[in-house]
């Protein structure tokens, strides 16, 4: 799959911090049932890589990848366990759009965006979106960087996601609101499916 194939599947990419591996598969299935089929498991917990492997192997129709990827070695490791994409908070030195699996690098400024384009990328995560200028920054990027499209993440929520998705240079948004920690801990998969269904309906 290309990065465009992945980002185009749903308007919202859930950004998941999974503390307990027992939650991984039911959480993923609840999100997929609601129409969010691209799942970003952040590498912020000891079980994250194992969660990616299980979710990729056990959840039909899911495209499972890793977030908080900080190195070339980690990109390779994610591919090795069956992950289908990587998301980084910034540009990874030496990496390019060509690689074992698609990489979505993060940028926050025009200078970083220019560097990313020079590395061969045309799809980026604006991160942290709320700090980097949000909707207004993306509007400003549209004309000088017409070839670039974005998945803004960081401070994106149910209230402002539609504002981002209305922009022509936004393919999708990343957000954690569809998997509230209290719902995950309680195993309230029905609530998560409903939140996912509402988020999937944000496509404009």
Question: Which CATH architecture would you pick?
Answer: Alpha-Beta Barrel
The largest pleated sheet is described as: 4 strands, parallel
Q: What is the top-level CATH class?
A: Alpha Beta
Across the major sheet, the strand order is: 3-2-1-9
Rounded radius of gyration (Å): 16 Å
* Average pLDDT rating: 97
Structure in words:
Helix 2 (21-33) crosses helix 3 and helix 2 (21-33) packs across helix 9. The protein has helices spanning 3-7, 21-33, 48-58, 72-80, 110-118, 134-142, 161-165, 181-186, 189-200, and strands at 12-16, 38-42, 63-67, 86-87, 103-104, 106-107, 123-126, 149-150, 173-175. The chain has a single domain, classed as TIM Barrel, CATH 3.20.20.70. Helix 5 links the parallel strand 6 and strand 7 (123-126). Strands 3-2-1-9 form a four-stranded parallel β-sheet. Strands 6-7-8 form a three-stranded parallel β-sheet. The longest helix has 13 residues, at 21-33. The chain has 204 residues and is α/β, with parallel strands linked by helices. It is 39% helix and 15% strand. It contains nine helices and nine strands.
List the helices and strands and how they pair.
Blueprint: H1 3-7, E1 12-16, H2 21-33, E2 38-42, H3 48-58, E3 63-67, H4 72-80, E4 86-87, E5 103-104, E6 106-107, H5 110-118, E7 123-126, H6 134-142, E8 149-150, H7 161-165, E9 173-175, H8 181-186, H9 189-200
Parallel strand pairs: 1-2, 1-9, 2-3, 4-5, 6-7, 7-8
